[in-house]
Amino acid sequence: MAYVLIFFNLNVVHDYYQIPLLAVTSLLIARGLGLAMQIWGTRFPVRTALVAVVGFAALAFLSIRWTERSYYHIDWMRVEAGKLIDENTPSDALIVAATSADTDPRDPRILQRAHRYGWSIHRDYLTPDLLHRLRKLGATHLVLVVPEDDPATEILGIKGIEKTLERTPWKLLIAPTGP
Predict the structure, then answer these.
(1) Are 81 and 147 found together in one domain?
(2) What is the DSSP letter of 152?
(3) N or C end of the chain: which has fewer CB within 10 A?
(4) CA atoms within 13 A on the CB side of 29
(5) Angle at 107 between CA 19 and CA 173, to 5 degrees
């Protein structure tokens, strides 16, 4: 428990660090349930079994419901952005995909949907210096995906193909990185 409390932030980012704790936690839960069964199971065997079955069913139902709501949804912003990038850039283009959505350099979702290679960065980190360095590494196109009311294209002074996504309130700008 001390490990989880001390390194809480690390466990939020890398939740797989908690996997070694599963075995110990399972044993402690089993021990507690076994003790509860010894105390109440002999006095009220039918009620105890009924409570255990209903509790397990409720836990399973709530877990599945939470999982479906949290993980299984279509990210329309990235689907549409990827399709537009695919349609408006050459197949061998190296893309700098900058978005103000929750993304970091390990997030390949826009590039994967566009069937392109390149770099994913958060819009806040996009600077002319970074763009120049990525251009030296071979970047051919900048793709900026931001909310419709975001003034990023005006602030950065970027000109290119600008499109509004259909299903989400985001706009997409595709511009060559070269002069």
Answers:
(1) yes
(2) H
(3) C
(4) 6
(5) 160
